[in-house]
Amino acid sequence: MPKPMLKQPQTQTQTGSILSATQKVTQKQDQKLDKMMVDRLLRKQRSKEYMQAMTSLDAGGHTHNQQKVNDIINAIRNEFPEVEISGVLLGFVSVCYLGKPYEVHTLDMGGQIIEHYKKGEPLPGGLEKARNIALRGGYSFIEVYVDCCRAISSNGTVSVISC
Questions:
Q1: Is residue 12 part of a domain?
Q2: HEC secondary structure over 22-45
Q3: What is the number of structural domains in the chain?
Q4: Is 91 helix (H, G, I), strand (E, B) or coil?
Q5: In-domain check, residue 103
Q6: Which pLDDT tens digits describe the chain residue by residue (163 residues)?
Q7: Considering 9, 11, 48, 133, which has the largest number of Cβ atoms within 10 A of its Cβ?
Q8: 146-156 burial string, b = 16+ CB within 10 Å, else e?
Q9: Is residue 6, in this structure, part of any structural domain at all?
Q10: Across the strands, what pairs with 144?
Q11: Using CA atoms, how far apart are residues 34 and 120, in angstroms rounded to an integer?
């Protein structure tokens, strides 16, 4: 960040003063920069370890084994150590290969649970917006965020899809 050329007076913090207006503008600019940095980090190609952890969701047995769920969540946190994603990342959606009647499975970050869903059964917590992307194919899984979906290819490449 550039150095300020003028010294800021330290005693003027009254509401409506030039200084407080400048601080508000600076805070908004910092928030934009933070969002841009987070977006840039979340566009990076995913690691092999992360991809292996996420593709293991469909192996079955995870729905009743909390330790395996915790291992997957730790892999997610290790992939994004510099980003606090707990309030931004809603969960994951992927095609389910367990067979009929199941269509997709999810990892819900809020409840930290893995669930398999039948055709037409609604997905909870904002994850429904990723169902059609997952079913269309071409991606290993979909990361569902508050403001977008990130479709992850089998090689870890990220495609951002507005929701």
A1: no
A2: HHHHHHHHHHHHHHHHHHHHHCCC
A3: 1
A4: strand
A5: yes
A6: 454 434 444 544 455 555 554 455 445 555 555 778 888 889 999 999 999 888 877 655 555 567 777 888 888 888 988 777 777 889 999 998 888 898 998 888 776 778 889 998 999 889 999 999 999 989 999 999 999 999 999 999 999 998 7
A7: 133
A8: eebbbbbeeee
A9: no
A10: 91, 149
A11: 38
